[in-house]
Amino acid sequence: MALSGTEPAADDAPAGPQRPVVAIIGGGVSGAATAFHLALANQTPAPEIIVFEPRESLGKGLAYDTAEPAHRINVPAARMSLLTEEPDHFLRWIAAHSATRGDDDALRPDGALFPRRSVFGGYVNAMLQPLVASGAVRHRRCAVVHVLREGPRWSVIGDDGGQTKADIVVIATSHPPPVAPGQLQAVLKDHPRFVPDPTKAGALAGIRPSDRVLVVGNGLTSADVIAALALKGHKGPITAISRRGLRSRGHAPVAQDPAGDFLTDPAFTARALLKNIRSAIRQAALDGLTWHSVIDQVRAQGQALWQVLPVVERQRIVRHLRPFWDVHRFRVAPQVETALDAAIAEGRLEILAGSIAASRIETDAIHCALRLRRCPGTIEKTYDAVVITTGPGHGGILASQPFLAELSHSGYLELDPTGLGLSCTRKSEAIGPVAGVTSSLLIAGPLARGTFGELMGLPQVTDHALFVAAGIADCLLAQTPKAA
Q1: Can you give the pTM of this predicted structure?
Q2: Count of Cβ atoms closer than 10 Å to residue 424 Cβ
Q3: Can you spell out the DSSP letters for 291-352?
Q4: pLDDT tens digits for 60-117?
Q5: How far lies 247's CA from each of 252, 253, 276, 289, 330, in Å?
Q6: Fewest CB within 10 angstroms: 12, 64, 374, 445, which?
Q7: Max alpha carbon distance in the chain (Å)?
């Protein structure tokens, strides 16, 4: 059932002084979860919550708005929930709605459930539907093109021409799409089988079963692409190339509790943190555990660990250690790991460490000169298709949407020093080079990662949404006139 709480292009009715307006830009998991928790805060007067999201449904966003059957959540369903106090809520919702009916591969031999990503998107949407139906949350089905400061309030203008006056604005948009390295974009932009953004619906449709495919990047998106091609019957050779040739790891063979302690004696440098993690992994091995248990503990304590690190050490982690962290922290679903292992075993997939030195097109063939890591010169390879999976283009966040560029130009937004997102305070308040801290402009979700550290996994995203919603509720309560 589609959400129906959309707004016409005409101006919203002015909000009275007793009904503050909160505009949330982005209706993926971060924005939807923020709206959900704010609506449940039971404030008097209740704020008018408006979510700007051009998609038909709230809660799916970029990650979960996919019909591709190979796209699966990469953690067990039992650890995903919109309700932080009920970590198995999603799992119970699946059972109540038979949401994995017909997907025999969702349930693994160990009992863990890894449903398709669209199922989780449907779950979040279902949680928002009653709030939309009651009017507690309003869905403006449009993209935001302008956010302007007008006195103490904000003017939010959609691409439908509608204008909303808001007291608080929450930016909960996605990271920008990947950026093709070097001259690939210019050389291949008109090629029928160049895929600059594989997250778009039908992006892989043009790749033929026997095509020679180059996948640029080797993280979770790369794994999803390779698994999706296999499910479509692709049998041609695939090369996955990245600077270090690291492949995303899978899950532990059996469930383990987090191991190690990184907060009692915290590290204050990137080097010391790496030393502590390696030491904990060695101890875990002696205790019969795998490295997964240690990385899980780092994730659990990640935000606190991040806070004690000076900015220069955070930058060192991003520059030198992030690729290694990503392949251990962002694990592939077992079904995807099986597809990768099969492709390697059959000789259809090679994983290379290196970069693309040059490329050219002859007829439809794509000729690439690959410069391999620690090898002199280049090697020549020919492909029929190229797919870019290098991860979000963090450096282009401010230019990725008109309203972000506008807020940057007017001095309300700037990139975080780590380059991972937008600069904000520990209260998620936006920081700009001119405006400084703006308490009525908040950053929710992964775009606040530079300040909060571990903010990409679903538990952290929902926790942060609850945190932002609670902050908004406290702010609005403080502004409510007290009865005489």
Answers
A1: 0.90
A2: 26
A3: HHHHHHHHHHTHHHHHHHS-HHHHHHIIIIIHHHHHHHHSPPPHHHHHHHHHHHHTT-EEEE
A4: 988 898 888 999 998 899 989 999 889 899 999 999 999 999 999 999 988 899 999 9
A5: 15, 18, 23, 21, 10
A6: 374
A7: 80
